[in-house]
User: Fold this.
Amino acid sequence: VQLVESGGGLVQPGGSLRLSCAASGFTFSSYIMRWYRQDQGKERERVALISSNGGIRTYADSVKGRFTISRDNAKNTVYLQMNNLKPEDTAVYYCNALSQYEYWGQGTQVTVSS
Assistant:
């Protein structure tokens, strides 16, 4: 089982990034997918969730209207489009899969700074 995040990096405030999480080794289309983030010294925060068929999407209040979660079950990939990024969005972003079992990716760093 693998969850591999990509797309992180350094971006200026107001900029955009698109994170990807490629899954393998399990039935991706049966799993709820979530994005979490954690900054140094802070608790891990759930950022977004998408149901197995994409019909349900939820977001943390802190990112509503700026972030969009999506998935492509044919490609076993979940995405997080992040727009209008703010310095407080700086964190390591983790991909999570949840069903009968739970899996985590290794994380990708997002830094928002001028």
About this structure: The chain has no helices and eleven strands. The longest strand covers residues 17-24.
